[in-house]
Structure formats: structure tokens, C-alpha cells
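Chain A, query sequence.
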Amino acid sequence: MNSKKHFKKDLSSLCAEIGPDDGVDPCQYFKTASRKKAGHKDDQLCKQVKRALSLALQGEARREELQKLDVLRVEPAPDSAHLLVVVTATHSEISARKALALLGQASGWLRCQVASAICRKKVPELTFRFVEGGEARR
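Chain A, predicted structure.
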């Protein structure tokens, strides 16, 4: 007799009816599915990353189109290992597609700038989102 049949035979002798939650670890069964709220350290990291990206885009970027982008906010998505960077165009009309393509090409350089500004073992992954001027301030 294999172990699964033996296990079900033991369960049926212990209860009148076998349910879907029988044989499940109680720690996993009663675990809440709520997502942990970002804490003080995550907020601090987001501010540091925003400052580093703003300085990199405004001062050190070689491409003129990147210098016209402004970082609005940085937030954990879903945790501090992955950050969502919301950017907008400051002076000129840059299309969202072009801005995201430029940021995608410069993402490695931007992660290096973030790595030099923060004290972490692993640099967070950056995901970019472009918003138009009208919906920029949320």
C-alpha cells in the first residue's frame, strides 16, 4: 500500500468525514492573506531612490530627452525589491512610448546610479510608468 492510501485510511479512522482542509498545516490554514503595508524603511528607500533618479536624470543624463523627464514618485510594487517609478515630461511634449523606450534603454545605468546612492546588498528592480502633465500630481 503506498503512503497516500495509508494516509487517507488513517484520516478516515480519525474523523467521520474527510474535508478539503484535512491534512493541512494549521499554520498555513489560518494564515491571513493580507499584504504587509509598506513600512518606514520602505518609505525611506523610496525617497532615496527618487532623489538619486532625479539627480541622475536632471544632471548626468547624456541624452537631452532624458533630461526633460521628472520623477514624480517612487513606490514599492509590490515590495521594496521592485519599485515603481512614476515620471512625467517637464518642459517638452514627449510621447509616453518614447519616454518609456528611453527609460528602458537607460535602466541599467539608472540602477547603477541608485546602487551608488543606497546602502543595500541588492539593488531593487525599477519599473517605469509615464503620466501626462494633467494626471501627474496624484
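The chain has a mean pLDDT of 81. Residues 40-60 form the longest helix (21 residues).
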